[in-house]
Amino acid sequence: MSAQNFVPEIWDAALLLKLRDELVYAQPGMINRNYEGDVARAGDTVYVTTPKDVKVRSYTKNAGVSASAENNSAGAIAGIQYDLTDTAAQTITVNQSDYFAIMVDDIDRRQKLPGFVEAHVANAARALAEATDDYVVGVMTNGVPVANQLGSVTVARPEEAYELLVELRTKMQRGKAPRQGRWVVVPPELYAKLLQDDRFIRNDAAGTTAGLRNGVVGEAAGFTVIESNTVPEAGGEFTVLAGHGEATTYIDQIVNTEALRLESGFEDAVRGLHVYDAAVLDERASLLASAEVTVSPNTSA
Questions:
Q1: Total domain count for the chain?
Q2: What is the Cβ-side half-sphere exposure of residue 99, based on CA atoms within 13 angstroms?
Q3: How many whole angstroms separate alpha carbon 7 and alpha carbon 12?
Q4: Predicted TM-score of the model (pTM)
């Protein structure tokens, strides 16, 4: 790589793909990109419209048909009632932006193996992914409805780890989360407990290589279980999140990657800007649940 033969469009695409390969909370399946559109810079606004629920009513034969909506100012009219095709409006302003900037001296370039700069850019993608995940998990955590927060839970025995997932499953079920696509992210300490419970189905034991998401380790209580070192932790208490991809929308774009020759010395430089944001959709917040989990050593029953 040099400033002379640098092709920014190629590097933009490669860096974005590498970044997405490193994401946990912001990876496909755990979020949706339904409203991403064409994000060009920090400060762009995305307008979200989420269809509202549709009611199902009893039908009485020969009762007559009315084109009036139930919420008409005249009130309900006998016959068939129609729901207005309304949507819940929500606005997301893309405010998050991170950058990386690296430089390499001409002497160092001559003494290093080919791909030296490219390896550093790959490391930059991992760092961008960590910053993105930290932000997205915060958005998700703050978006969990109070009714779906289990509060403080202590897990000491393997069966208690599985029981925790069952409780999170109940919250998801009450929130009308689709059965397919539910996920839960656990720290290594909690995963170690699950491994000791026969009800946890490991990917390797099930003879599957369907690790379609980063960190997928198995299935339990209707969840795809994902192990991650990035589970939020404070004072030994982990914030364990469960959810569905319909709950959180995510937007991102590598706005610009560029190479340049620095004037102050004999160096080339590469720098890139990542713009992104996320939001829990108001009409889908019930598809998230959480628990503040302390994992203790095994104790006898």
A1: 2
A2: 12
A3: 9
A4: 0.76
